[in-house]
Write a structure and sequence with these properties.
With 153 residues, the protein is of the alpha+beta class. The chain is globular, with a radius of gyration of 18 Å.
Length: 153
């Protein structure tokens, strides 16, 4: 049996049980305006990473174009219209033993700095490349450095 074609299966007395492995595709935008980068803070009552800083973005819906998804997510989360400039890097990580996220991070250009946050976020900041290193989780900064993103901004 070719394991890459079929989901993991465990056998129980009652028969076969399929593990509910899930893969999620998400997009994030490193949004630039006048040489500053937008970061947004998750609300304190958010169930995933409350109070943490991140780039705007979210899950790609089934059938949705990647760039259209990113434009929609940034509009929903920050109220900004953006132009997607280029794909900066891709990464993947597990959020649980059977949930994997594939994350595509893009460079985006905003036409305004007037942010209007969604209820799932509590604060925002336009920061420099140096300031961002003190706000984001170290693994995000490591991905950015590994992919030479700071040189591209």
């Amino acid at each position: 049996m070719m394991s890459w074609l079929f989901p993991r299966v465990t056998r129980h007395k009652e028969g076969m049980h399929f593990m509910d492995n899930k893969m999620v595709v998400a997009v994030k935008g490193i949004v630039l305006y006048e040489h500053k980068i937008l970061v947004i803070q998750r609300s304190d009552d958010d169930e995933v990473g409350p109070g943490t800083w991140e780039f705007a973005g979210g899950k790609v819906e089934f059938g949705e174009n990647l760039e259209a998804s990113l434009i929609r997510e940034i509009q929903e989360e920050a109220g900004l219209s953006v132009k997607v400039d280029s794909l900066l890097y891709a990464s993947t990580f597990l959020t649980s033993p059977n949930r994997q996220v594939v994350l595509l991070t893009y460079k985006c250009l905003a036409d305004s700095s007037a942010v209007r946050l969604s209820p799932e976020h509590s604060a925002y900041a336009w920061v420099t490349k140096e300031e961002i290193k003190g706000l984001l989780h170290p693994p995000i900064i490591e991905d950015m450095e590994k992919n030479k993103v700071f040189a591209l901004l």
